[in-house]
Amino acid sequence: MSALDPIESYRESYVLRSQSDAAENTVKRHVRHLRKFNSWLQDRGKDITDDIEVENDLLRFRRWMKRRGAGTKCPACETIADPFEADCPDCGADVAEGEPVGYSEGTIKNAIGAISKFFQIQRPEDPNPVDQWETTGSDGKWSITTEKKRATREGVFYLEPDEVERLVEAADGFRDKLIIRMLVSTGMRRSELISLRLRDVEPSQKRIRIYERKNDEYRKLGFRSDKLARHLRMWIDHHRTQEYGADESDYLFPPDGKGDSDHLGETVVRDIVVEAAERAGIQDDYGTDAMGRTQHLVTPHALRATFAVQCAKNNIPAPMVKEALGHHSLNVTDIYTSVIDDDAADMIRRDGPSF
Fold first, then answer.
1. Of 28, 214, 230, 313, which residue is the catalytic one?
2. Is 270 assigned a catalytic role?
């Protein structure tokens, strides 16, 4: 392989920067996605070192991944052939008339993430097409991806304020209502929520600290909601003490007695949101995943998107929101200063959505 291969160079740079055992597995997945993206580009007369356009390249690749990126099912033996090959690797049959096979949304998201990371490391001076897709302009104005049809996975699915309130009301019990309010009022990931320790939460200051394991740093979150601050205080002082395992756990949400974890599980959080949405009459499905499981629209991730969209509607600059979400923006490097971190938390606490 050529020493000038940009994808191999990316692999080496990624491992060198990360300096962890897990980096090798992560970058292997990245390289696989990047090579597929490069092959797709080369079929169109470009490669990964060229200017990558949002509409003509990134979004078309995303649609291609969804429709046929995984390959083509051989009509003779049903083996999945590589999408860039004309013949079945098992029986040698022509697969031109075979059924196209697409990737799941999760895999597509990982592929887009790999492209974004490639630009951050290998092409830091060039516009990152993934960031251009989400934001436009150095002042952090938001693009109108949120104006696409809300009930599809092509746009950004989010809830309106009245739907959020219906979701909270339909949740079962104080803990579940609090979890939903936290997710939608801060934009945190469910993995971040279940990893919160008591020392990370300051209800009176409307501030939460999120530990980011990959860089061994804390990200500060602010929130605006007085109701959330009150309910957090009530949870810590009273309701939490009655939960299973609370005495032995220093996590904000102790385990529910299922499994060996010392905090609540991600699946539990997902079920809380999905089931509350069904009871509230706002749940919808958009198909099944590769395992045949129903894919729901109202999930913890949808609450994260709701937070971001409402911040945008409240005119909070996109780089500030992306900092709160723990994402990279067009003009923000991998290393964020404590000043930007504090500004983001303060602005969210003052002007963020309040549910």
1. 214
2. no
